[in-house]
Design a protein that fits this description.
Layout: H1 2-15, H2 19-23, H3 26-37, E1 45-50, E2 59-64, E3 69-74, H4 89-93, E4 108-110, E5 116-118, H5 121-139, E6 144-147, H6 154-168, E7 173-174, H7 182-191, H8 201-206, E8 209-213, H9 217-220, H10 222-233, E9 237-242, E10 254-257, H11 263-276, H12 282-288, E11 289-290, H13 292-298, H14 304-311, H15 315-327, E12 332-335, H16 337-340, H17 345-358, E13 368-371, H18 380-384, E14 391-392, E15 396-397, H19 401-411, H20 423-431, E16 437-441, H21 445-448, H22 452-461, E17 464-469, E18 481-484, E19 493-496, E20 501-505, H23 518-528, H24 538-548, H25 557-563, E21 566-567, E22 593-594, E23 613-618, H26 634-637, E24 645-647, H27 649-654, E25 662-666, E26 671-678, E27 686-690, E28 719-725, H28 735-739
Parallel strand pairs: 6-7, 6-16, 8-9, 8-12, 9-10, 11-22, 12-13, 16-17, 17-18, 23-27, 24-26
Antiparallel strand pairs: 1-2, 2-3, 4-5, 4-18, 14-15, 19-20, 20-21, 23-28, 25-26, 25-28
Bound molecules: ligand MGD (2 copies), iron/sulfur cluster and molybdenum atom.
Length: 747
């Protein structure tokens, strides 16, 4: 017991590494240490597993007494290629959700009176089979759509894609990658051939220079941020371009504030400077790329003066960034949603891909592109495994006759060559009556879709909706049947992280109540709908993936477990996996990077007299998305218990707003009320609100109509809004009331 306590305390010291140390409540640390200390280690189950929050892919040992998770401790370093002994506050502590009282433990079905009642698995699955089956019979499989879950494992996501095509008969299967990095996937696939990070984490650790944009790295990818900060302390340059002076900017060699929505403009401005001043890598351009002349011609219009006028970045900052990039031996180009969640996100990504290529920063140690992916398994489950309207697993095009024939034979079904609907388009198709039933797995669409006022109506009007989740979340409110799934700590399989490393996820405790793994639910349902699935384990599902997917040909559970992770492409059992993409050739027909000129683009909605501000939305360290998991951890809720909107001090003064005042934010789609946080982190024309709280769902303000044409990503990062201080809570309040000082919320 003493030993266990000592070990637990020692573990606490490890937390001192990285961001967790800056922020952890001491009481909480002690609580965790003694929770393990009070148990006999021999009574606990321990499993080395992979974090189920973000795509950094931290690995650690989880300790459970069979009912809850007691601690997360470093696993051995070889087995934790990305994080070593570091984890952030979520991976370390945020497990209150697992054993929370409001976990779904039994299936729920809608009763006659409209309320939910519990049901047996048999009854619930029969209802689902009948509900989906009836729509398929009457309107065809295309009238059904499935949203797959990037929280779930690779094996489960493979089955979600297979279920949609084989059992439901639809290609309308998609997932949160569409809301997130699908513009990255489209942009990089077009230029280099693979829609993924080219780097390994070790490239990020050893590069001489970073160009980081649209990434709140310390809050959204904390353990990678720790790596970057360390390297910058050791002398690497860090260039940060962001509309908000986010924490990583404090470590930067140069921080430039950009106006949201115009990234291709300043990126092209840097490219222009580099070409004009001969700072590019002529040999690399000549030998490894095509399209340079097109890029050179297209950047001419992005003069320093024009860039400043549009983006606010002064000429000397463009010049200094270009000089730094040109002088660096190696550079990593990192970005996240600030670049992608736009109606022209794919163009932004291509502009960045052009810049990385002309500076010769690909395929060598310490170089490459690194879009930090989002959900724990969006790279693998959200992309590689093919729960996508246009691709089978391994990005094999469904319109290709030969490939389609391979899957039709393997899955014993006919598959249409026509692409299905992308995520947000499923909702628009449902509005038109083309989609009538949805099966939503591990996605809280009622909060996370753009324009949720409309999405709510659409969910309500569906003929049949199945929700499969850990919780009765906001989306489940509209369901006919709710199926209880279990979380990553209760099942076994694999996740693929942001640098293409496939890693093991291991069960450390039994599923809560009658909840089941997503793959077991799908198997039961497929069999009720006329199929004969017989997987005895997730490893068997992976065997099927290996046989059908060249990228994952050699990625077996056995190897992933014994080799401590395996990076794709890994085409066969003897292949060692691929650390760094494009060392010899790009994944294009001629092996070259296909550069393309990118012209001017602007956001779909720009500020005007009625809506004079640009609202941008995003994340905070302690919270995760719609809060289903993090809101159930008390220690976490102490820190960011509620929403806020960041407003610049000058703007706040002009509108008579102080920190803590309730502010009404209005867009053409709706309005929300949130307390102000007055800060110069944002510029005077921009306001920022996080996405984590249902009470003030920020997606009431965003727009579902303007999607990126290539990737169908919504423009979450730009909405035109107005702001006003709310005094009496509603407009009808009389003058006196409006002038009363606010009592609560000022602190
Ligand atoms: N704590 C926490 N971590 C998470 C998540 C979470 O919910 N909570 N979610 C995970 C997921 S799924 C994802 S996809 C990632 C997202 O990771 P990030 O993309 O880093 O997260 P966001 O907060 O959306 O931050 C976007 C950044 O873009 C900036 N930005 C806004 N508009 C623009 C613009 O027009 N141009 C540029 N250049 N920048 C802009 C914002 O100021 C912010 O710094 O995080 C993952 N990690
Ligand atoms: N305004 C605005 N909106 C955004 C964004 C933004 O930046 N701004 N970002 C977008 C992005 S990048 C993303 S990724 C989305 C995220 O949006 P969502 O994916 O909808 O967000 P989550 O809250 O992570 O929802 C995941 C759900 O899965 C459940 N879950 C967890 N594990 C499992 C499991 O193993 N199986 C099953 N069946 N369920 C599970 C959780 O309980 C939760 O209900 O939001 C998007 N929406
Ligand atoms: S950085 Fe991401 S993967 Fe690592 S512990 Fe935190 S949430 Fe988990
Ligand atoms: Mo995401």
């Amino acid at each position: 017991m003493e030993r266990a306590r000592a070990q637990a305390l020692q573990n606490v010291e490890h937390v001192a590494e990285g961001v967790a140390a800056e922020t952890l409540p001491e009481g909480k640390l002690f609580e965790v240490a003694s929770a393990v200390g009070d148990k006999r280690l021999s009574e606990l189950t321990v499993a080395d597993t992979t974090c189920g929050y973000c795509a950094v892919g931290c690995r650690f040992d989880l300790y459970s007494d069979g009912e809850e998770i007691l601690a997360a401790r470093p696993t051995d370093d070889e087995n934790a290629p990305v994080n070593g002994i570091s984890t952030c506050v979520k991976g370390k502590f945020s497990y209150g959700f697992v054993n929370s009282d409001d976990r779904l433990t039994k299936p729920l079905v809608r009763a006659e009176d409209g309320s939910f009642r519990t049901a047996s698995w048999d009854e619930a699955l029969t209802r689902v089979a009948e509900g989906l089956g009836a729509i398929k019979e009457e309107h065809g499989g295309e009238a059904l759509s499935l949203i797959a879950s990037s929280k779930a494992t690779n094996e489960e996501n493979y089955l979600m894609g297979k279920f949609a095509r084989q059992v439901l008969g639809t290609n309308s299967v998609d997932n949160c990658n569409r809301l997130c990095h699908s513009s990255t996937v489209a942009g990089l696939a077009q230029t280099y051939g693979y829609g993924a990070a080219s780097v390994s984490t070790e490239d990020i650790e050893q590069t001489d220079c970073y160009l980081l944009t649209g990434s709140n790295t310390t809050e959204a990818h904390p353990v990678l941020a720790t790596r970057i900060k360390q390297n910058v302390r050791d002398g690497a340059d860090l260039l940060v371009f962001d509309p908000r002076e986010v924490q990583i900017a404090e470590y930067a060699t140069q921080y430039s504030r950009v106006q949201p929505g115009y990234d291709a403009v300043w990126i092209n401005g840097i490219t222009r400077y580099i070409i004009e001043n001969d700072l590019y890598d002529e040999a690399f351009v000549a030998e490894r790329t095509s399209g340079f002349e097109d890029v050179k011609a297209s950047v001419q219009e992005f003069t320093p003066e024009r860039v400043e006028e549009v983006t606010g970045v002064p000429p000397e900052e463009i010049a200094s960034a270009a000089e730094t990039l040109g002088a660096a031996d190696t550079c990593v180009f990192g970005w996240t949603l600030g670049l992608t969640e736009h109606s022209h996100g794919t163009e932004n990504v291509i502009a960045m891909a052009n810049l990385a290529a002309i500076t010769g920063n690909l395929g060598k140690p310490g170089t490459g592109v690194s879009p930090f992916r989002g959900q724990n398994n969006v790279q693998g489950g959200g992309g590689d495994m093919g729960p996508l309207p246009d691709n089978f697993p391994g990005y094999q095009d469904i319109a290709d006759d030969e490939i389609r024939a391979k899957f039709e034979e393997a899955w014993d079904c006919d598959i249409s060559p026509e692409y299905g609907h992308y995520t947000t388009q499923m909702f628009l198709a449902a509005h038109r009556g083309d989609v009538r039933g949805m099966y939503i797995i591990g996605e809280n669409a009622a909060l996370s879709e753009p324009g949720v006022n409309h999405a709510e109506e659409i969910l309500r009007d569906l003929d049949f909706l199945v929700v499969q989740d850990l919780f009765h979340n906001e989306t489940a409110e509209y369901a006919d049947v709710v199926l209880p799934a279990c979380s990553f700590v209760e099942k076994t399989g694999t996740f693929t992280n942001t640098d293409r490393t496939v890693q093991m996820v291991k069960q450390v405790m039994p599923p809560k109540g009658d909840s089941r793994s997503d793959w077991e639910i799908l198997q039961d349902l497929a069999n009720r709908m006329g199929r004969d699935w017989n997987y005895a384990s997730s490893a068997e599902i992976m065997d099927e993936v290996n046989a059908l997917t060249p990228l994952y040909g050699g990625v077996t559970h056995e190897r992933v477990d014994s080799e401590g992770g395996l990076q794709w492409p890994c085409p066969h059992e003897d292949h060692p996996g691929t650390k760094r993409l494009y060392e010899d050739a790009f994944n294009t027909d001629d092996g070259l990077a296909h550069l393309q000129g990118i012209g001017f683009s602007a956001p779909a909605e720009t500020p005007d007299d009625e809506y004079p501000f640009t609202l941008t939305t995003g994340r905070v360290l302690y919270q995760y998305h719609t809060g289903t998991m993090t809101h159930r951890e008390e220690g976490i809720m102490q820190y960011t218990p509620s929403d806020f909107v960041e407003i610049h001090p000058d703007t706040a003064a002009e509108y008579g707003i102080e920190s803590g005042d309730e502010v009404r934010i209005r867009s053409r789609r709706g309005e929300i009320v949130v307390p102000a946080q007055v800060t110069d982190r944002v510029g005077p024309d921009t306001v920022f609100a996080p996405i984590h709280f249902a009470e003030s769902a920020v997606n009431r303000l965003t727009d579902e109509d303007h999607l990126d044409p290539a990737a169908a990503t919504p423009e979450y990062k730009v909405s035109a809004v107005s702001i006003e201080r709310v005094d009496g809570h509603h407009e009808t309040a009389d003058e006196d009331e409006r002038e009363q000082p606010r009592a609560a919320g000022d602190d």
